[in-house]
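Annex B. Sample input.
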Amino acid sequence: MPSAEHAPMPQATDPGPGTGSVIHLDHHRRRPRAADPAPAGPPDPAVELAYTIQALFQADGQTLNDPATARTFATTMKAVQLLVDGAHAQNIVGREEWEALCVMLDDVRSAPEHV
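Annex B, continued. Sample output.
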């Protein structure tokens, strides 16, 4: 049996308050929408990088929000920094490149703080 047969038929006139067959929407109307907030500006590259790194961890079933994983990540970043420092010490990378790499590694190292 179709459900339309069970629904009450709408009345052509307003039967007045208290009858239960009409829902008056005057007092349920939404307030006018406030203006959309201004854009927050360009995204922070360090935060965007943190989300990318977090996605890599999540794809492997891990998260930087886990304290043990974050500690392991920090230890790994120390090893990467040693690698870059060693490359600079052996003149494999110059001073400018080393400084640029160190800035990038600082952003990577801060990933757990942003997720």
